[in-house]
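User: What would this chain look like folded?
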Amino acid sequence: MPTLISTKQFLSVLFTCFLYNSLFLLSTFAQNETVNLDTGFSIEVCEDNSIFSSNQLDQNCFKEIVLSELNKKEYKDRIWLKITIKDANKEFIDFNKNIDSIKVYHNQDLFLTGSLVAQSEKQLPLSIAISAIKIPVYNQPFYIEIISSQKYPISTQLEVLNEKNFNRIYVKERRNTVDFQLFFQGMLWIILLYNFFLFLSSREKVYLAYAIYIFGFSLFTSQNAGLFVDYFSAQNPYFSLFFRMFGLAITAVGFFSFILTFLPKKVFNKFWKRFFSIGIIFSIGMLLPYIILNYGLGNSYLYDKTSKAAHGIILLCNLIFIGYLAKNYWSDTLVRYFLLGSACAMGGAFLSNVLKALFGDTLGDVYLVAQVGVILEILTFSLGLGYRMKNLEKENARILENQNKLLEQKVTERTKEISMKQEEILVQNEELHQQQEEIISQRDYIEKQNTQLKSANTQFTDSVRYAKTIQKAILPMKQRVQTHFEESFVLFRPRDIVSGDFYWVYETNDPITKEEIILIAVLDCTGHGVPGAFISLIGFALLNEIVSKELITKPAQIIARLDERLQEALRQKQSNNMDGMDVALCSIKKVDSIHHSTGKKQFEITFSGAKRPLYYIKDDIFEELKGNKMSVGGITKKKERVDVEFQEEKFILTKGDKIYLTTDGFVDQNGRNQQKIGSLKLKSSLEEFHTLPLSEQKTKLEEILDLHQGKQKQRDDITIMGVKL
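Assistant: Here's the prediction, encoded as structure tokens.
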């Protein structure tokens, strides 16, 4: 962390600055003297605001007035002066530098000056901070138009001077002011940069706040003294007005931030924390109404009055805060530094205002006294920062020393613990050696058991895979399905190696009419994996026997008979076994009639379902038949009370129409948010894709399933069969 200057060096610099500024002010006060301005000229004034050109002046409007009375009065917006200079020794007329615009008319000539007139347009471009003109004619009247464009009251402070007095009072005074300001600004920037580099090296926010405070005060004082407008915006004085308020706002922001970071945290209660935080926001926010009033409405006077009232309230609260600190925390050294520095600044401001009220401008720029007070404040705060840094270094050294002592104590305690643990470790090593022998023995036993388990698992897996081969063999081959239908697809995804779902296609003849009938079905057996596969094999065998041996071809009768046979095969009335299956089954039979409009062949479809629906597309319209609300197999209270009757429905389809049979595996598959695909999604997809070839429909359904499932585990066996008549 950087090292500050010593206290002795700091006090030497403080004394040198105070002595220099005191001598400068005394020399300035001694040189300024009151000049008798009431001889050798006459002045007449006209307050008629409707007059805008010297060619139209009404001479009756002018009234003679003495200079002392003219300088005491205040006027609004605009006045006209008619001046006649008789004394040829009088060469210059000087005005109050805060007058916005001054126009001097003589014959066809026009001369300009004023605080808001560009330096290149002035008759005497000595400095933008000086509003003066050279007398254009003697023993003849000439006219002066004085304008306040910013709504400030016009106070002329007019003086008629000879060249010697003008150079002595204004030119030399201006040079002295510039010299002092250059010294003053240079000292501010040295302190500013020093604290800014301290912030960069230490990251302490108090140094940044202090640098911002000094930067804002530098902007404000350089603009107030005319340096900013002379050297940076001489051709655009309006621009410099903004930087006056901007500098004042930055000063307030920096000062409030400095207070919050410099003083100990114990001095701030909730009220003062909130007050200074709001003060920072208020200081920045005051720029917006200033821009609106000054540049939008051209009324800086109104803003000046309201801002003075607002800043007066802030100043009053600051005084209350200073009293609060002095009463409650005077014993704290940092608080004393802050109070001493604040007293220097406020004392300088108070003394300058008293001198201004008592002597006016006869003593020169009395606001230099206020600047000297601020210099003393800044140097006092710098000394406080040095004290704060030394305290931090001492505190850090104390903390480091305590940490070292604590560390040594912990090392000693830790060494004792290690010694004790070493003895424990020796004992434990012997125990571990014995345990190691036991573990090796157990490991050999576990490896033997693991080998046996792997062998058993391999045998079981091989058996299940062979069962898959058997199950796959009994399912209808693709060629067999395509023999009966122009187009078809089967989406078949077992959850495990073998499946509890299966699909069935059987060709037979009606036992009475001998008409050819094709039976298709999709069945979902209870469970999945090996248990479900066993039920599916039983169901497949029973279906074949019911149709081939018992010659039952009607879907409702087939399902009813399957229900009876499955209960018998599993002895469900004796064993209370509840296994069963959901079935969607339909028969397809050609009819002799031809569709009257399309001329296509027609088919009679008979459907019966056990908790599974039938979807079909007829004339490009999607339809659904829901089936019965009861499964096949299992003993339920409903089945014990009444004989089970499965209903069937008949309808006519035309060549090119499509039929879809499904299990519930597709619609029940969950995704990343545990949300199922749902039957609505399946039905809308079948309706959307029905014009595509059935092979492409299968691909689309697989894409929907894969996208929804993602990395989730498959929940159930999945089967969807689609055929085109």
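The chain has 19 helices and 19 strands. If you want, I can go into more detail on any region.
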